[in-house]
Each structure stands twice: as C-alpha cells, then as structure tokens.
Amino acid sequence: MRRVGFVALVLVAGVVGGVAGWRAAWLSSAIAAATFVLLAGGLWWVRNRLNAVRKHQRSTYRLIESLLRQQKSLHRHQKAVAAAVSAAGRAQRAETRHAHRSVAKAVGGRTNALAKKIEHAAEQEADRSRRQADRMFRQLEALQNLYQLIRVRRAMPPSRGWALSPDVLLSYVEEILRGEPRTVLECGSGASTVWAAYAVELLGSGRVVALEHDQEFAERTRTTLAGHGLADVADVRLAPIAPIDVPAGTWQWYDTAALHDLHDIDLVLIDGPPKPTHRQARYPAVPVLRDRLAPGAVLLLDDADRPDERAILHRWRSEWPELTWNKLPHEKGTARLVVPRA
Ligand SMILES: C[S@@+](CC[C@H](N)C(=O)[O-])C[C@H]1O[C@@H](n2cnc3c(N)ncnc32)[C@H](O)[C@@H]1O
Fold it and tell me: What pTM was computed for the model?
C-alpha cells in the first residue's frame, strides 16, 4: 500500500511537473518533471534506508530484549546456584558440627570410662597400700611385744617369709609362757626354734625338739641356737622325709624314728615339711602325733589360709572330732587346735 502511495506521489509529481512545463515552456517543464522525478526517487531511497534502519533497529531491540531475558535467566540461575551452594555449606557445617559432637561424645565417653577406671584402680591401690601398711604395723607391734617378753642376747634370725611372721611368733611365745609346756615339738626348724628356746629358758624348765628334714637347715638352726646359748634348751633333730602310712593313705613326712622318745607333748608347732614334699604335706602331724600328745595339748598350724592347709584342717576335724579349734587372726592365718583334757 505504501509503495502504491509512493508511485501515486511520483505520478502526481510528474503530472504537476508536466503541467508546470506546459504552462512555462517544454524545456523548463521537462527539467521540472525530472526534478520532481529525482526528488521522488531520492525520497524513495531515503524512505527505504529509513525502513532498513528501523528494521535493523527493531532486530537490535529484539536482540537486546533476548539478551536481557537471557541475563535475567542467568541471574536467576546464578541466584539458584548461590542458594544451593549456601544450603550445601549450611548442610556441611551442620554435618561437621554433628560429627564433632559425636566424636566429642564418643571420645568424652571413653575418656570418662578411662578416668573412672584409673580412679577405681587408684582407689584399689590405695586400699591395698592401706591394708599392707596395717599388716606391716601389726607385725611391727608384734615384734616389739616379742622383744618386750624375751630379752635376747644376740640378733635374731629374720622372721616372715619362710620363717614364722612376728604375729605367730608372739602367739607361740605367749602359748609357751602361759602353758608352761614340758615338751614343745616343732615340725620345721628355724627362727621359731630360737624364739621357743628363749621362752622355755625363761620358764626355767622344759625343752624344745625341732624336726628338720634338711641337713643344711638343721645345721644352720643348731649354729644359731648355740650362738644364743640355747643349745641345751633346743634339740634340732634331722628327720629326713620318708614314706609313712596314715589313715588317709601313704604320705611323705618326717622319719618317725626322730620321735622315739617323745611322749606327752604339750605344744606342737606345725610349720613343715615344705609344701612341695607332698600334697597336703602337713596332714600326717595329727595322725602320727595324736598318741604322743598330752591331754590339753595345743597344736598351732601355720599358713592355715592356704588351700592345702584348709583341706588338712578339714580332714583333721572329720577324723578327730574331739579336737577343738579356732583361727587366730594372723597375716598368714594360724589354726589353734586343742586336745581335750579328759
Ligand atoms: C616353713 S619352714 C620352717 C620355718 C621355721 N618354723 C621358722 O620359723 O623359721 C619349713 C622348712 O623349710 C625349709 N626352709 C627354711 N627356710 C628356708 C628358705 N629360706 N628357703 C628354702 N627352704 C627353707 C626348712 O627345711 C624348714 O624346715
């Protein structure tokens, strides 16, 4: 339509130019017509250029709009990515906090358990140390009491360990001083023999006989007794370990030949033979000695808390129910058995 309009305009311009030329002169009208035609052509060209520019402008606008849309979408996308990254960061931080808390809880739990164990072990150790200190104190007290009762002439052999502990030695010496025995028999010689000899010497009458299966220990005890001037009070007899028949079977015990002259024994200290000699090694003492004991005789069994000695006591009590007995509160346990008087 526009093009038709424009053609019409050019025709009108040509007609106008022609009319003008007819009116003036044909040359002038030709120039005028040409001028109009040129003018119309120029206008046509300018209009076309303007149209092209407008078209280009429109496509540029569309492009800009599209770019703006893309930018917006990109921006939205960026925001979404940023939100996702921030959410992931939060999740990670929460995860890390949770992991830290779990680790702290687990480690804390273990640390607490460990601390409790250490505390418990420390308490047990402290208890053990207290008990040990108490035991030691009682032994020192017993030793002091022993030296109050007995005035010794030389240094005494060590007590405790293989020898009797001071608490048993004190009971043993007190038993002698109280019971005034004529005959004291020891199964197993050593420090106990020396203390017993001093106690008997203090009484002014009586004797100590000690059975010793080992030649070397027999000699050692004899030498110690002689050094203390007690050789006449105590007699250490070598009595090698030999088979012996007792109600419970055949045992290994001191050779009974060493007992040939012993009757009416008033006090027996059972501290041998040593454990490895035989199972329940000290058991034969009662079956072998029973008929050689005086009425009211006292038997002291050392180490009575050991399983072997508990089994021995059990046997004795069932085989000789007439024996009365009690336990003395010593560190290694001592059983005191008494033969009835009648
Ligand atoms: C328990 S001990 C007798 C200790 C004794 N009644 C005393 O108070 O010293 C029993 C036997 O062990 C032996 N004996 C003693 N001291 C020993 C030692 N230090 N090492 C190994 N055997 C020992 C001796 O033959 C002793 O007759």
Answer: 0.71
